[in-house]
Specification:
about 525 residues; alpha+beta; 5-stranded antiparallel sheet; 5-stranded mixed sheet; 20 strands; elongated
Length: about 525
Amino acid sequence: MRKRSWIMSWNLNTQELGQEHQSGLEKNSLGMPEQGVELHADMQEHQAEATRSQTAASSNNERVYLNVPFKQKEEAKALGAQWDRQKRSWYVPAATDTAAFAKWLKKEETVQTPQKEASEQRRDPQRLYLAVPYLERKAAKTAGAKWDSIAQSWYAGPQADMEQLKRWLPENVKNEQLPAMTPREEFAEALRSVGCIVEGEHPLMDGAAHRIRTEGDRAGASSGFYVAYMDGRPAGYVKNNRTGEEVRWKTQGAFISQQDKAAFQAECARKQQERAKELLLEHEKTAERVAGQLSWMKQDVPTPYLDRKGLAPRRGVFWATDGKTTCIPAVDADGKLWSMQYIQEDGTKRFAKNSRKEGCFHPVGGMDALRTAPAIVIAEGYATAGSISDAIGHATVAAFDSGNLMAVATALKDKYPDKAVIIAGDDDLHLLNHPKVRANPGREKAEKAAQAVGGKAVFPVFAPGEREKDMAGFTDFNDLGQKSTLGMAAVARQLKPAIEKAISEKSAELERNKQLVQSHSEGMSR
């Protein structure tokens, strides 16, 4: 899967949940329940039954459904075929000769609409039935609609909110046939059905994981997750991490040809390139704005955040002109400024609007100190990285949150390939029982980042009984140094041996690689 070049915002909980969703994805096995009517003939008689059904369609007000490839839909439409949006299929209207549609007649089945009389017999005259499209069923259910399994229709339940349900009253639903939807349009409907806000370039049908805004998201948040493929029969997966709703989708229309697929992918690639250029320009403008802000701020002065975290004033940490906000610049591996984290007195954090964050970090001690450090030590928040730097005596890195650990570790590994990488992770045990998380994102993300770069992950160990009293308050190395009875001495005691071991192992690895290269060169010269 391709990774998106830029991510404008980050949401911690949904980042953790997002990886869970991908484990269940398969390119050609994602599907929502198929809509259709059961065959009434057994396999041995089914061809004869199909013929009888097609003959009866002209006189008994029954529909004959067709297998119309997407590229031929205009031809079928010109002949009089109409689109059944509910069943996602073209059909021959009643009293129309099927001869002109012979090449599209289904060989395996014909789906028949029950006669009006039979339909009326199945319906309860005391119930107010509704015309609810499949993708809107959850919204209708929430408003009080109930499903009549006999009539195969939704109806207004006894506790229904009629103000919300009136949109599905038969008289309010248009009867004309709507044009066939493309797979992308179908998938957009699936996104909307679980509360995702479809705008901009969404949905991207490129097989990669994407984040998307959902109804109720705060500014900058993207709580929706989806992935969609255009291979063979287009399929995909959607999850709204705010509500927990999810959809496994596959197109109800025609299979896409290789030619159409190639054209669609080329168009997607072109749009993504355009979007990447737009994002880069936007990020550059934000970087200029942030640099201008920094020029008016003071650094190496006490701030409410530093005081609360037990950290002394230092260069690189700025105090905003409002006298309240602590500002932490974010740079890339080359030291270029891209964004800034603003931390309020109460600990609330946010990043510069429309800025680049992925792969950006803050070097505690500065970029020059990071270049000369014996190892790359990466923590999540600034306070944690600051406490570690004070304890071990050299520069460290703040990645800002667990979701950014992988990108930062990879970038610094590429920049300094000869340095050992240590991830000083948070141990979020308290989130294991959180109803919306039920995971330990700090530990999981730290371990994955370390594994990806051949590094080591280390976590704080607290005094007996401390975590039981306040599990959420004892998670990182800043907590160990400032809240634990073990103090800053424990930060140094737990991290220094791990760092020295990682450095030793890295040196041995580099020596082995050097010998392998030398042996290979000698073999080539013989």
